[in-house]
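dude i think i finally got it to work??
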Amino acid sequence: MTQAWARAACSHPALSGVSRAHVGELLEELAPKSQTARESALRERRGGDRRRAVGAGPKQRLVFVDRLLVTLVHLRLGLAHAALAQLYGVDRSTVSAAVREVRPLLAARVFAVPDRPGLRLRTLEDVFAYAGAKAWTCGSTGPRCRSAARVRVARAARAFVSGKKKQNTVETTTFSDAQGRTLFSGVVRPGRMHDQTAVRTEGIAEQFRRHPKVKAEVDEGYRGLANEFPAQVSAPPKKPKGDAPLGERHAWREQRRCQSSRQICVEHTNAEYKQWRPLQRFTGRRETYAETHQAIAGLVSDPSARRATRRKPGTELVLARQATCGHIGRDRALMFDLAEKLEFTVTSEDGRVLDALAHA
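look at this
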């Protein structure tokens, strides 16, 4: 099996998870960064400039495009390094080194901005600044956030045992816009930590305080955030008591349905993440999960940012024709003629209304 055949197979979207055009963009973006990082590491190891000509020393068994492809296949399918090594005819350690090299480069790309090619969102501050500016100019409802992507890890400590899942988990917080396009996904924390604790420790509440125009739809885990910022954060309505009247229970059900339909967009975002095997069940080292999650979320954000923005039509009523005195006078005459034919009585109140409209 030749490396050219393996390269053609791994570049297929069914294996890599991204289109071939996307692979070309990643190659053009990351190859110079990889070369710069390698030269910097070699210089630090040597303690100075190179003493031999360029090209001397051991050759790379996998060129950068192959190292990028094996990393993408590993992230997409969770395929073992040994299996990928057999595909390329190299040793397992070669594939492991390639994944360790390329995965940080993918994670450092962070998140694409919808309708703003070339810009990336790196931190929560960037997300809220972007959402605040968009809300000010376009009336956007801002980001949706929820705790998402609970991912199992092997042999975790007690802090990583989720009380809900009864399993070893790691949790993240995902922000998306109203169309389900990823804005940010991070704030990695142990599964035992409550969402409200993450809100305090990661500064999410402070960001809402600094950006009063940003609004968000959240799930039940962020109830405290909704109580603190009722004008900005919308959470599911509280369930009425058991002895509440039937009308109140029906109203609660309808309010919950409406809030869920507004918040479902972030569930669609999480569904895109779940198509990547490591975010369904993570079997690697816990220390590498944050980097893996950010690399996958950045890859998912690229095609989602290219989706066209859907503009909602306005609901303001517009008059078909402008009312004038002539129209109102003619309507008054028609009303009296019709009343006379049908033997109706036109009251003085009706006449006064039309006279007032005619002189308005």
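The CA atoms of residues 111 and 121 lie 5 Å apart.
im so relieved honestly
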